[in-house]
Structures are given as C-alpha cells and as structure tokens.
Amino acid sequence: MSIYDRRVLSIQSHVVSGYVGNKAAVFPMQVLGYEVDFINSVQLCTHTQYKVFKGQVLNADELKCLYDGIKENDINRYSHVLTGYVGSTSFLREVIRVVKDAQQANPNMVYVCDPVMGDNGRFYVPEELMPIYRDELLPLADIVTPNQFEAELLSGIKITNEEEALKAMQILHDKGVKTVVLSSIETGKENTLTLIGTQIKDGKKTGCKVEYPKLNMRFTGTGDVFSALLLVWTHRHPDNLQLACEQVLSTMQGILQRTYKQAHLLAGAGGTPSPAESELRLIDSKVDIETPPEPTNIKGVALSF
After folding, report:
1. 281 and 289 in contact (C-beta within 8 Å)?
2. How confident is the model at residue 233 (pLDDT cuts 50, 70, 90)?
3. How far apart, in whole angstroms, are the C-alpha atoms of residue 151 and residue 165?
4. Is 93 a domain residue?
5. What span, in angstroms and rounded, lies between the C-alpha atoms of 133 and 156?
6. CATH of the domain at 102
7. In the chain, what percentage of residues exceed pLDDT 90?
8. DSSP state string for 218-248
9. pTM for this model (two decimals)
10. Which domain covers residue 239, as residue numbers?
11. What per-residue confidence (pLDDT) applies to 186?
12. Per-residue pLDDT for 299 more than 90?
C-alpha cells in the first residue's frame, strides 16, 4: 500500500467554532483512516446562521501559493480531491487549476465535487459561479453531490419527482461525471427524504434510491459531512453504490438524531434551539462514523435502467 492510497486534499470553508466546511468534513475522513490535507476557502469565527460572523475570505493567489508549495515539495499526489464552498469566481478558477494538476500527478485520483451554491431556491454564493461549475468543473469530476436546488441549476431541469431527478442526473453524466448522488430530494412524502444515486461504469448504468427520515430541525454542515463520508464509502465499495449510500446515511442519521436530541434538551421544553445548541454533535458521534449503525429506518432499493 502506498502512502498516497488514502490521502485527500479538501478545499472548502473553515470556522473557528462549530462544524461546517472543513471542520465538518476532515474529522470523519480521518476517523475512517484517511490522511487529509486541507485548504480553507474562507475562515470565519462561526457559520453564517449566528447573529455575528466575522473572518477572512482567501483569494486565488493564496490558494495558488499554498498548493504550489505542496507541489514544490513533491507531496501533491492524492488519492482524492474534495471541494466544497467557494465564495468567488477567481478562487473557483484556481480550484480548477489545482484539480487538473492533481489529476496529472495521479491519473487515478478521484475528484469529489460538492457544488455548493445554495438551497431552497436561494443562492448563497455569487450566481456567476454556476456556469463555471456547470461547464468547467463538472467535466473534471468523478463524483458530484448537489442538493436538489443545485441539481436543478446545473441541469436546467426543475425537479419535482423521481423521473425528473433521473433526467437531471443524466445531464450531469453527459458532462462526464461517473457518479451523481442527490442526497435529499423532497418527493412529497411527509417526514421522508429521498436519496437517488446513479453511476456509469464500463458503459453500464446502475443506481439506487434510499428513503430516510426527515428531522424537523435546521442543521448546518450536513452536506459537508455527507460528501466526506461518500468519498470514503464509495472508495471502499466502488462497485456497490447502494451499499455506500446506505452506510453514509446510517452514519448521518446517527449524527443528526444525536444532534436533535441534545439541541432540544439544551433549548428546554418548547424552546427553539439556538445556532450554538444546534451544532452537529460530530465528536460525540465518533462511534457512528467508525461503525455505521444498522439502518433500521433506511429503505434502499436498486434502480433498473
């Protein structure tokens, strides 16, 4: 085994306190045995749901400086690159350069792209990032993990049901992406979310659909944890996307249920948890990350094409 077999470069946001971006993604990958180098696209005191958030936005030159230093030390060989939140077009274009260089250094490198742009119909990055993701970054990606809103933006298709989701996902495949996973689609079932994943390998398309409970609480950082876990479990089960997704969701349910219970305990009877009380109980969930719980409330089925 090479020292580069489980070595990840993660480029996304950072917070001093709490769990989003790299603070949410790095720990699970490390617990599961992966070496993780990480570069922060922004660094803030907290995530943006707090009443006050302050910090710095890194620019493209700073990303270039850090990555080029790694390259000059001849340690820029990674098994995976993971990208998440990026706040500017210049930084995103530098990400493209880094991904291409990492692919050249290791032709077997797997690029996992979480195209973080917004949610629930609202952008929280500049809208001009969308065509860069769609036209320039997606063709480089092996795995993409958009949410429903992001999948609609990237495909140009409104998603209201499973058929439309699969059509949108095929458009992303047509751009060269091997694996597309939509983590949380609203399909009209009360208190239930649906994951749909599709994969094209050796010209054959396979897929899965997994339903899981929806908790009535606003969480932050869940997409960042999800993409990190998917990176690991698809690496461990490259030919079984359904199993990989079930393992990811089992861990996510353990983390979210623990977070939900603790947040409401701290908020008190009838209270609404504050952002601080709602932070993911990531460290407390180490055992669920190491060994995903038995998926008693998760229903997965294979899709036929």
Report:
1. no
2. very high
3. 8
4. yes
5. 13
6. 3.40.1190.20
7. 86
8. --SSHHHHHHHHHHHHHHH-TT-HHHHHHHH
9. 0.96
10. 7-303
11. 83
12. no
